[in-house]
Design a protein that fits this description.
The chain is an alpha/beta fold. It is 39% helix and 22% strand. Helix 3 packs across helix 4 and helix 9 packs across helix 10. It starts with a strand and ends with a strand. Bound molecules: nicotinamide-adenine-dinucleotide. Nicotinamide-adenine-dinucleotide (NAD) binds next to helix 7 and helix 8.
Length: 479
């Protein structure tokens, strides 16, 4: 049994409590490793190590910091197979997806922020009498808390800009998917990162996450996860005047106008609904289809979805793997039941899958498509975060924009139309941090990433992330 350790002050150490949590392989439903059940005492040790490391790391020439980060990116690429298989076993997603998306993107995160920091310049504002210039200094010790759906991808998306800007980090991956963060620590060591710069504490949100949130020496929290957890974190951190970046839940609309390229819209919408078992915050789970092409779209969409084989994530032919945990699997199934109670018709899927062999007790659900629900029922308003999508017909642009904007969320939206003016108009009217037109999940890491309403506060990505992890100080000089 593989026992995971915390990484504090450059060393792998046991949790102070000596206790461990079971870590399950979702595809088999069996315990395959142990995760430290850490608490505030481990966070305290990490903060001490981070405070000690801060003068060294923040004082290091930026080119040197960049070199270390680029080395980590290279190591991740070199060890792609090992990391991808660890991610798949820990999370349940298909191995090909871990290889094609999760691990390459984690490497890219280190590469991107490791180079972006070399181009991060501050502003100057001059008049005839005065010169203002703005210094940007690292915050100090910061907390990064990440979820289970894209484990290393989102973990590195936070820690890379925090580290690039010279901060020391106390990071907490999800207790459901701790493995790749644990393996990453080894690469950071090899890459020459000084001890204490990155500290990784494993364990429960209510213990480790809460301890990070309320620690007085941690001055900024970057969090990705559920909206309710984000509210809990804000409740503690806001009165302490910590900087907060909150990337929260979504219930993303995918709007199909009758003048779209139907073939592309149907194929990409199927991917957008079910990639990673529908466990991506950007998945388009509410599909609004203009009435005149409703049947044609439905036919093509369902024919793609029917080809999404569910099964062992290690098998190359598997399109959809296992859901991350039994609790989450039960939650998704309960939403399928709710949809039926709300009058929905299941067009495909809706059932548990028990693949033969090693995965027979894993947490699998068929990709499920439902129609006949009103846009404002619970199924269409609450985040399910699994392989469940609904089809809702609409008549006019005004109507669909109102339906799309009707949830509390506002993370991402997709619009399908060949009409340029309509595309821009709808994009402007959607309450959403991100809008994709005729595409989905195209990610340019320079762009601002985040949501509005209950989908979050602040933006990640590009210079936004470097700004979040630095404090601006304006200096005014009389000339
Ligand atoms: P979660 O909120 O349960 O947990 C996220 C992280 O927070 C975990 O590491 C967890 O241990 C920790 N945590 C839990 N309680 C805490 C507390 N009281 N204080 C501090 N930390 C705590 O979310 P999840 O179930 O891991 O992830 C799924 C959610 O994440 C979905 O809602 C999804 O939409 C969202 N998500 C959002 C984005 C985005 O970019 N907006 C990206 C991915 C996932």
């Amino acid at each position: 049994m593989n026992t995971i350790s915390n990484f504090i002050g450059g060393e792998f150490i046991k949790p102070v409590s000596g206790n461990y949590l079971d870590n399950y392989e979702p595809a088999t439903g069996e315990v395959y490793s142990l995760v430290p059940d850490s608490d505030e005492r481990d966070v305290e040790l990490a903060v001490i190590a981070a405070q000690k490391a801060f003068p060294i790391w923040s004082g290091m020439p930026v080119e040197k910091r960049s070199e270390i980060m680029l080395r980590i990116a290279d190591f991740l690429t070199l060890h792609l197979e090992r990391f991808a298989s660890a991610e798949t076993i820990d999370q349940g997603k298909p191995l090909w997806l871990s290889k094609a998306m999760d691990i390459p993107r984690a490497a890219q995160n280190f590469h991107f922020f490791g180079t972006e920091i070399l181009h991060f310049a501050s502003e100057a504002h001059a008049t005839n009498q005065h010169l203002n210039y703005t210094l940007r200094t690292p915050i100090g010790v910061v907390g990064c808390i990440s979820p289970w759906n894209l484990p290393l991808y989102l973990f590195s998306w936070k820690i890379a800009p925090a580290l690039a800007t010279g901060n020391c980090v106390i990071a907490k991956p999800s207790e459901l998917t701790p493995m790749t963060a644990y393996l990453l620590a080894e690469l950071c060591q090899k890459a020459g990162m000084p001890p204490g710069v990155l500290n990784i504490i494993h364990g429960l949100g209510a213990k480790v996450g809460a301890a990070i949130t309320k620690h007085t020496a941690i001055h900024a929290i970057s969090f990705t996860g559920g909206t309710k957890t984000g509210a809990d974190i804000a409740r503690t951190a806001a009165p302490m005047f910590k900087k907060l970046s909150l990337e929260l839940g979504g219930k993303n609309p995918n709007i199909i106008f009758d003048d779209c390229n139907l073939g592309e819209a149907a194929l990409t919408s199927a991917r957008a609904a079910f990639t990673n078992q529908g466990e991506i915050c950007l998945c388009g789970s509410r599909i609004f289809v203009q009435q005149s092409i409703y049947d044609a779209f439905k036919e093509q969409f369902l024919s793609h979805v029917s080809r999404f084989t569910v099964g062992d994530p290690l098998e190359p032919g598997t399109v959809q793997g296992a859901l991350v945990s039994k609790a989450h699997w039960e939650k998704v199934l309960s939403y399928i039941e709710l949809a039926k109670q709300e009058g929905g018709t299941v067009l495909c899927g809706g059932n548990v899958v028990n693949p033969e062999g090693r995965c027979e007790n894993g947490w699998f659900i068929e990709p499920t498509v439902i129609e006949g629900l009103s846009y404002d029922c619970r199924t269409n308003q609450e985040e399910i975060f699994g392989p469940v999508a609904t089809l809702v017909p609409f008549e006019t642009e005004e109507e669909v924009v109102a339906m799309a904007n009707s949830t509390n969320y506002g993370l991402a939206a997709v619009v399908w139309t060949e009409n340029l003016s309509k595309a821009h108009r709808v994009a402007a009217n959607l309450q959403s941090g991100i809008v994709w037109i005729n595409c989905w999940m195209v990610r340019d890491l320079r762009t601002p990433f985040g949501g509005v309403k209950h989908s979050g506060v602040g933006r990640e990505g590009g210079f936004e992330a470097l700004k979040f992890f630095t404090e601006p100080k304006n200096v005014c000089v009389k000339l």
